[in-house]
Amino acid sequence: MPETPLSLLNRVFGYPAFRGEQAAIVDTVVAGDDALVLMPTGGGKSLCYQIPALLREGCAVVVSPLIALMQDQVAALQELGIAAAFLNSSLDGATAARVERDFVSGQLKLLYVAPERLLTPRFQSLLAEARIALFAIDEAHCVSQWGHDFRPEYLGLSALHERFPEVPRIALTATADAATRAEILQRLDLGAARVFVASFDRPNIRYRIAEKTEPRRQLLDFLAEHTGEAGIVYCSTRKKVEETADALKQAGLTALPYHGGMDNDTRRRHQEKFLREEGVVMVATLAFGMGIDKPDVRFVAHLDLPRSVEGYYQETGRAGRDGEPAEAWMAWGLQDVVTQRRFIDEGEAGDAHKRIGHAKLDALVGLCEAASCRRVALLSYFGEASQPCGNCDVCLNPPTLWDGTEAAQKLLSTVYRTGQRFGAGHVIDVLLGKTTEKIDRFGHSQLSVFGIGASQTDKVWRAVLRQLVVRGLLEVDHSAYGALKLTQAAKPVLKGEETVMLRAIEARPARKKSRLAP
Ligand code: ADP
Ligand code: ZN
């Protein structure tokens, strides 16, 4: 009996059935056609090229940027009795030479290579000698120059198609927004590929996004709901990673820092501990996580905003890969948005890149401000329609909205009357009708807006201001010490042509942690 994809899945991998679109993807590649596979982490991308590799003649060449993951995969394949090997910088010369020989002489079914190795003249000549079953390009979003995993070597991968037009290619990624997808198709020259998009929903992850008030306290409260569980706390800077890890240790937690500024040995030690021991909290920058395959991560916390919705999805996606309930928690504030806008504006990138950066940030802020289901908002960003999930903070605890039109008008008028030259603190002082040295100096107690907001608290005004900034009615001018300025979007509100619904800020009683419904 000749082998079929299903018989291989049963016999070699020990699984009874394909999941989702795996069977169709396998058929496409076995037939010699190109495929682009967008599937969330844990969805089962590897089988999509491993089974065609076994069914087609020759050796599959798998391009992967992650050395650690390569080694794990190869070890797992060898365990199953499959002739697999990898070539990367971790091998000594003799071993590498042996792998190369096996490759050329047709002893291998799968060869994993790092992209920089693949493009060397030496490897290119090996490719000419060997018989190639297919090219698999893993983590294909690394070709996207707008993404934060960009690898310049990935741009060279389109050459594979030029040299070996008859060899099918399968590109795989867990990053699925339309822009990245288009970029992958274009840059890898995959125009004729069949595109497979799996559902990106991770139903066992509960999403919670809180307003940042006392971040340290809020984080500790969140972690108290996850005592003894393993998880990741993401921070945006190395310094904050160190400080947060220290604070968690002092609070009695098993916390370890991880960031790109630490030496390799320490990093590896911390990573090992996180993987092998129970209940370790890894406090990390983005340097940690890509390719970390730990199924029982019970939570991912963000103390700072990620850079985009994709980033948020990728990072939170490291929780609950075993399918058991897990939580994604984030605290964010206006300052995060302001800082990131400044990063984008002050960056070296060209205008087009900056515009994309701002649009991506806007989308993320939209998710944070969402007054309806977070999951619906998240999935719709990836072009996927869904129903309110019942397993996010908004579904479980809908925010109270109030008509903030009048408050918005008062605040916008105050910004305008004070000349669009002052920051949040002064504008709110004028609204509240305070007497300060600055108000005296500028004669602002003479303005018609002085004290028009006295019936509300400072805290309410800060919340209103934050929401107006994140919605783009006000902007913060970094070149003028954080002065607030009106945007075009403020006009219809000031003219009374548009209502502004705002989220109420009063703290609601914390809910008891409820388990997922079956
Ligand atoms: P990804 O690369 O998409 O993150 P993997 O290929 O690592 O996901 O697969 C995730 C897990 O799911 C692995 O443990 C894999 O063995 C398992 N898996 C994949 N496909 C199937 C299937 N059809 N049946 C059962 N388990 C599967
Ligand atoms: Zn929901």
UniProtKB/TrEMBL annotation:
Q: Does the keyword Cytoplasm apply?
A: no
Domain of life, source organism:
Bacteria
* The keyword Signal is assigned to this record: no
Q: Which residues form the signal peptide?
A: none
Question: Which transformation does this protein catalyse, written as a reaction?
Answer: Couples ATP hydrolysis with the unwinding of duplex DNA by translocating in the 3'-5' direction
Give UniProt keywords alphabetically.
ATP-binding, DNA damage, DNA recombination, DNA repair, DNA-binding, Helicase, Hydrolase, Isomerase, Metal-binding, Nucleotide-binding, Zinc
| GO MF annotations in UniProt | 3'-5' DNA helicase activity; ATP binding; DNA binding; four-way junction helicase activity; hydrolase activity; metal ion binding
Give the Helicase C-terminal domain ranges. 215-364
EC class of the enzyme, as a word: isomerase
As recorded in UniProt, its EC number(s) are 5.6.2.4
Needed cofactors, names only, are:
Mg(2+); Zn(2+)
According to its record, what are the GO cellular component terms? Answer: bacterial nucleoid; cytoplasm; replisome
Provide the Helicase ATP-binding domain boundaries: 26-194
One matching Pfam family: RecQ_Zn_bind
One of its GO biological process terms is: DNA replication
Family the entry assigns: Belongs to the helicase family. RecQ subfamily.
Recorded protein name is DNA helicase RecQ
